[in-house]
Design brief:
mainly beta; Sulfite Oxidase, Chain A, domain 2; 3 helices
């Protein structure tokens, strides 16, 4: 005797266990931005880290390029439900950038050229989990995907990987960024479907 009505199978899951719930695979790399693409000249580009007491560390483009870089292959997951597997990036680990930064902060507010911000726990930027990425798929990172450099935090929804990164403000208390102030989740774990506040 059948106890399940034909056609009723519940939520269909991908056979790929790297695909979080509610996501679909794409071979494309969709471009989604909150505003116009900023034109950032590498000669004038700067990345800064400011600690909770105002101490500031900064790198020019040439100084960033002189740091040890890594090539990483990671899966990325957008809050709009697409996922792209095995993406290849080149960048400098946040572990390298923060190695000489003394802080008691637990949180970071990432700032971008163009005014965008996003907040993250500092621990999510450390231990090989995050990079300032300047290369994608063997080439320079295109401006529409956040070039010349973007934050890359692949274990969180992709809005946390701020495009056009220019600064990281270290803070003792959490403070919501651009999308978080508009109702998106403060953390954004794709495996827990943390898309919006309350998820």
């Amino acid at each position: 005797m059948d106890f399940v009505t034909r056609g009723f199978e519940g939520r269909r899951r991908s056979s790929d266990d790297r695909l979080p719930p509610g996501q679909y695979l794409t071979g494309d790399f969709p471009v989604l931005s909150a505003g116009p693409t900023p034109g950032v000249d590498r000669a004038e580009w700067e990345l800064w880290v400011a600690t909770e007491d105002g101490t500031r560390h900064a790198w020019s483009w040439d100084e960033l390029m002189a740091l040890p870089a890594e090539t990483v292959t990671v899966d990325i997951h957008c809050v709009t439900s697409w996922s792209k597997l095995d993406t290849e990036w080149r960048g400098v680990s946040l572990d390298t950038l923060l190695a000489d930064v003394e802080t008691a902060a637990d949180f970071a507010l990432v700032h971008s050229y163009g005014g965008y911000t996003t907040n993250l726990p500092l621990e999510d930027l450390l231990d090989g989990q995050a990079w300032v990425a300047f290369g994608y798929d063997g080439d320079d990172l295109p401006a529409e995907h956040g070039g010349p450099a973007r934050l890359l935090v692949p274990h969180l929804y992709f809005w946390k990987s701020a495009k056009w990164v220019r600064g990281i403000e270290l803070m003792l208390e959490d403070s919501p960024g651009f999308w978080e102030q508009l109702g998106y989740h403060d953390y954004g774990d794709p495996w827990r479907e943390q898309r919006y506040q309350g998820d």
